[in-house]
Design goal:
It contains 2 helices and no strands. The longest helix is centred in the N-terminal third of the chain and has 74 residues. Helix 1 packs antiparallel against helix 2. The model has no long low-confidence stretch (mean pLDDT 88). The protein is mainly alpha-helical. It has one domain. Helices cover 89% and strands 0% of the residues.
Length: 165
């Protein structure tokens, strides 16, 4: 009878330890996913800031190029207020602006992808927490069933329990 009682107690302890382990594992997974979500958001914000800096840099570069073009044309006696020279300067400005807009668009696309990834990590954290609770609950239920069976056998004559011959 004493050994059977020890088995019941060990079954309860094992069930509780297993359930706590599942909860701790789920907590660790959730924390890792939350960290990844925060990191993705930080990277998304950084992508926007870098994009803005590159966009501004491209506009300054374009303005500098247009200034050099005007200086070269004027130094050669070319009238830059009409005709082909004016068209060249306009094209330079348009192409530079298209490049700047493309840089902004790329940065926004990258930031959106990172924010979407962050949301997925958030869902992963929530799922890990739920899975841990469900797994721990299932372990406890299973353990209760096993312990109840051992307890029943311990207390029932003919199963080696009280009143067994």
């Amino acid at each position: 009878m004493c050994f059977a009682a020890i088995g019941v107690i060990a079954g309860i302890a094992g069930t509780l330890v297993s359930a706590m382990g599942q909860m701790q594992s789920a907590r660790a997974q959730a924390n890792a996913a939350k960290f990844n979500a925060e990191s993705s958001n930080i990277m998304a914000n950084d992508a926007i800031l870098r994009g803005q800096a590159e966009e501004d840099s491209k506009r300054r570069e374009t303005a500098s190029l247009a200034g050099r073009q005007r200086a070269v044309m004027a130094a050669n006696g070319v009238d830059i207020t009409m005709g082909s020279p004016l068209q060249v300067l306009g094209d330079t400005s348009k192409m530079g602006e298209l490049d700047a807009i493309s840089i902004r668009s790329d940065a926004e696309r990258q930031a959106t992808a990172l924010r979407n990834q962050s949301q997925l990590y958030g869902m992963e954290a929530s799922s890990a927490t739920s899975a841990g609770r469900i797994g721990a609950f299932g372990t406890v239920l299973s353990g209760v069933g096993t312990v109840a069976d051992k307890w029943y056998k311990l207390r029932t004559p003919g199963y080696g329990g009280v009143g067994a011959a």
